[in-house]
Design brief:
- The chain is of the alpha/beta class.
- The protein folds into three domains: about 100 residues, Chitobiase/beta-hexosaminidase domain 2-like (Chitobiase, domain 2, 2-Layer Sandwich), CATH 3.30.379.10; about 325 residues, Glycosidases (TIM Barrel), CATH 3.20.20; about 120 residues, Alpha-d-glucuronidase, C-terminal Domain.
- It is about 35% helix and about 15% strand.
- The strands form five sheets. An eight-stranded parallel beta barrel has the order 7-12-13-14-15-16-17-18.
- Helix 11 packs parallel to helix 12, helix 13 packs across helix 14 and helix 14 packs antiparallel against helix 18.
- The radius of gyration is 25 Å and the shape is globular.
- The structure holds 4-O-methyl-beta-D-glucopyranuronic acid (GCW).
């Protein structure tokens, strides 16, 4: 018996799968061929859609044929439409599932005109979400580290949620946007969470069972010190035989419980997490030990490259945090096992609103690389501000991809929690959806993905609603960039929680994130000629482009160079005038967006409208705070007045 389609409890938002999204397919005669668990999922989906919209599952004369010809793991499907019949063919249930949701996305368009058979397949095989969820509520970080959408979807009351219906519904949403892997706990692995690997694996098994029918593999973050903290060994040295045996045994037991387990995610020697350095071993030694334990079972270790000195002396100008990941890992290229994937944050620092693409992404030609994006809006407004990240991610994913993708997998830090809207801010759902779609097709036009999200989430939206949603979302990332830290310099956030402005919040801290503003100028000199040499980590042409302030793109100028306030940008404006102008504009853009949103009242469900309206109030107040603090700070430092004489405090 196929499992029924998950039911959302009262008040939980259907996100991009409202019932009406299934109208086109559900009103037709649907023939399903093939067998296997994911074919059964498609069967259940189609049956429910038909029951709702008057179609039927038939054995002859169908309008649409959904056919799986085998039981392989391929995710590809072929879609065609001929002589009034739509066909979706796949060589296994996974492909059929994605084909089914593709038909849902197309709606009536799937059933019109002639469509030559077209084959769709994902550009990368692993499209993963990392949840920074803690099982036990952490005294500082709460239940979800950097989570802005309530508690965890997976963990409640100190254990895996008993009622897994919501987790099943989550799996369904993820499948419908193309995501196929989830890591269920925080990469900072605390004492309770460490045990998920061993005596508490049963809870992970339950979650994996809930996600599996929608083609999602479950991964686990583990602590490098597990042999000591869980196994009672005296060392976690990756070259120690006892340690290797311990990992092999623990991993074999995980696979007894979860045969399709995806593997481990590891944050080692990073921000206080244990790692191989303690034993004089390299990160390849560490990753390969886990890779060896996983290899017989077909699992992967995702080894994070976020390794840097977080106890830096701000007086030390020779250390540049931006260099760290490359400096640590490039010498190890070629030394990693084939099932060790290096997981690299998209920028060299830490998920700022604007960073260059990390040079490490394309420097590891003999190592599988996963690029890590951050859907949770840690530095981009914490799901209080509207900040649709599609255009930023698209720039990142296209960078260096002219002759093929420089990475093998894509990961995003999840922005989801147990909030009824899933993402706290209802419009932040667009980020999750966009991540899934761009992971499937990194060269997709993000604007088209946004339209797709609008079409699914707001079926039958009148033109004014669709246009309004597009207006408030499409430019929201650039708006956010305008009123926060300027020209790629980053940070300037309040320490700790990272919300709201504090220009010097990190300036004299050990975290390695400085802007170096003085009375004459601002920015970090990362040139080879006079700075930290970071530009030398890029290949042509970027090593040259970024090296000189004349060729460096405006939006990254202060990331790469320290320049006087009077420096003239390519835009023709000076740095100081640019700071003033963008900060005034950014706030004006939020004011306009809020008005647009207000004008949509009546077209959007009241609860959703109200939630967004509330958050616009917060966003506007916060944006004004950013504008005034940044403008005043730089006016006071530089003494240069605003050309246009606007109020600066
Ligand atoms: O962005 C920083 C966050 C930490 C996070 C870390 C990481 C999970 O402030 O909360 O820890 O990055 O990516 O490991």
């Amino acid at each position: 018996m196929p499992l029924p389609v998950p039911v959302l409890s009262e008040g939980v938002d259907p996100a991009w799968l409202p019932e009406e999204a299934f109208r086109a397919v559900g009103g037709r005669r649907v023939l399903i061929r093939g067998s296997g668990p994911l074919v059964e999922t498609v069967h259940a989906e189609a049956a429910q859609a038909c029951a709702r919209f008057g179609g039927s599952l038939v054995s002859d004369d169908p309008d649409v044929v959904l056919e799986s010809t085998g039981e392989d793991g391929s995710e590809a499907f072929t879609l065609g439409h001929r002589d009034g019949r739509t066909t979706v063919t796949a060589s296994g249930g996974r492909g059929l599932l994605y084909g089914f949701f593709h038909v849902v996305r197309l709606g009536e368009a799937a059933f019109r005109g002639e469509r030559h058979p077209e084959t769709h397949r994902p550009a990368v095989a692993v499209r993963m979400l990392d949840h920074w969820d803690n099982v036990a509520v952490h005294p500082v970080m709460g239940q979800v580290e950097r989570g802005y959408a309530g508690g965890s979807l997976f963990w409640a009351d100190g254990r895996a949620r008993g009622d897994l219906e919501r987790v099943r519904a989550y799996g369904r949403l993820l499948a419908a946007c193309g995501i196929n892997a989830v890591a269920v706990n925080n990469v900072n692995v605390h004492a309770t969470e460490a045990r998920l690997l061993t005596d508490r694996i049963g809870e992970v098994t339950d979650l994996a069972g809930a996600l599996r029918p929608y083609g999602i593999r479950t991964h686990l973050s583990v602590t490098f010190a597990a042999p000591m903290v869980l196994g009672g060994l005296e060392t976690a040295d990756p070259l120690d035989e006892g340690v290797r045996r311990w990992w092999a045994g623990a991993t074999a037991r995980v696979y007894e419980a979860i045969p399709d387990f995806g593997g481990y995610v590891v944050k080692a020697d990073s921000e206080g997490q244990p790692g191989p350095f303690a034993y004089g071993r390299s990160h390849a030694d560490g990753a390969n030990m886990l890779a060896a334990a996983l290899q017989p079972h077909g699992g992967t270790v995702h080894w994070r490259a976020f390794v840097y000195d977080h106890r830096q002396d701000w007086r030390d100008r020779t250390t540049d945090r931006a260099r760290a990941a490359y400096d640590h890992f490039v010498p190890l290229d070629g030394a990693f096992a084939p099932n060790a994937v290096l997981q690299v944050k998209h920028g060299p620092m830490d998920f700022q609103v604007r960073e260059p693409v990390s040079p490490l992404v394309s420097a590891m030609s003999h190592t599988p690389v996963a690029v890590e994006l951050q859907a949770t809006q840690e530095y981009t407004g914490q799901q209080q501000h509207v900040c649709w990240l599609g255009p930023m991610w698209s720039e990142v994913l296209r960078f260096g991809a002219e002759d093929g993708l420089p990475f093998e997998e894509l990961v995003a830090v999840s922005n989801v929690g147990d909030d009824p809207f899933w993402t706290g801010h209802p419009l932040a759902q667009a980020n999750l959806y966009t991540f899934g779609r761009l992971a499937w097709r990194p060269d997709a036009d993000p604007g088209a993905v946004l339209d797709e999200w609008i079409g699914l989430s707001f079926p039958d939206a009148p033109r004014r609603l669709a246009g309004g949603l597009r207006r408030v979302l499409a430019g929201s990332w650039r708006t956010y960039e305008k009123y926060t830290a300027p020209l790629g310099v980053g940070f300037m956030v309040q320490p700790g929680h990272h919300y709201g402005p504090s220009v010097d919040g990190y300036e004299y801290s050990p975290w390695g994130t400085y802007h170096f503003a003085d009375r004459d100028g601002i920015g970090v000199d990362r040139s080879r000629a006079t700075g930290t040499g970071y530009t030398g980590q890029y290949t042509k042409p970027w090593d040259e482009v970024y090296e000189s302030p004349e060729t460096c793109p405006d939006e990254l100028l202060l990331f790469f160079h320290h320049v006087p306030y009077g420096h003239v940008l390519k835009s023709g404006s000076t740095v100081i005038q640019h700071i003033y102008d963008t900060h005034f504009e950014g706030v004006e853009e939020v004011e306009t967006a809020r008005e647009v949103w207000d004008s949509l009242a009546g077209l959007v469900a009241p609860a959703r409208h109200a939630r967004v309206a509330e958050r616009y109030e917060e966003q506007l107040g916060s944006a004004r705070e950013w504008r005034d603090q940044i403008n005043s700070y730089f006016f006071r430092k530089s003494g240069v007045p605003d050309e246009r004489g606007r109020t600066i405090h």
